[in-house]
Amino acid sequence: MALLVTGAMGHVGLAVTRLAARRGLEVIAQYNRTFDADAAGEVPSARWVSCDLADPAARAVLLADPGIEGAINTAAVPNDRLAGPAPARAFELNTAAVAAFAEAARVNGWRRFIQVSTGSVFQSETRFDRPLLEDHPPAATSVYGATKLAAEIITTMYRRQLGVSAATVRISFVYGPPLVPRERDLPRGPVVSLLREAVLGIPVRETAGGDFAASFTHVEDVAEGLLAAYLAPALKHDVYHLGHGRNWTTFEVARAIADAVPGAVVEVGPGTLPWTTFNTMRGALGGSRLKDDTGFEPRLPLQDGIAAFAAWMQANPERLIPQ
Predict the structure, then answer these.
(1) Whole-angstrom Cα distance, residue 29 to residue 177?
(2) For the chain, which end, N or C, has fewer CB atoms within 10 Å of the first or last residue's CB respectively?
(3) Does the residue 125 lie in any domain?
(4) Which range marks the domain in which residue 206 is found?
């Protein structure tokens, strides 16, 4: 019986697929159109399946597989830069597909369904100096935030009303290998963009952005936490936060990059732009539920995570240059 990992060619999905395979789990790895044969070759035990989860007929075929015993759903239209211009697809993938997964879990008696959500369900916050715990009321105003929050509500309903072993795990501003966009991807925040330029020897002299703060989390920690939630004997709560319980500013990101890349020029000025172009500021994702129920805690705070990512970039320079 297999764990279904959706979005397995994505940043988080690939990390979960690799980790689950290393732990000896049978994995069905779903992807949409993008397929990296080299990445798939690193997980030879996984069964890679192409499926557009925004297509109801296609996902019905996938979910009819009797060999699936549970799922970690990382697939999504992943931010407002992409969701805003395509709200219908965002709803179909971020919300309707989640209802289909939860129903498959109910009908087929899956051992667990983990819905991966986001800190972007908190979009009306005015205080950024305190952590947001799991029971903090969410409020979503954008296409991305609203579709992800709707998926959380569906997951909780299936858990509470229909007895499905399901839970939502919220993550935030994930960074780490192998994802290195060749140009600045503002929704992902400053870590990967500024670090890539520093490793390439490009001086970073930003006039603004230093006051932007977020719960940056290394992708290895995210994969470990999601798998821990999937494998836990029992989950006592509807929603979990995966993170360090604190925010770091871009000023702190710049200092960590300068420490990780000796000789790098990394300067940033005050303000939050350009990083708030597609993101709203919020308090850090906090809470102890994931540790209490699974024993998991992130092991790579910002300084260590950036150092590890810098070492990977330096060892893989071909991943930094546009092809």
Answers:
(1) 19
(2) C
(3) yes
(4) 175-215+247-283+301-319
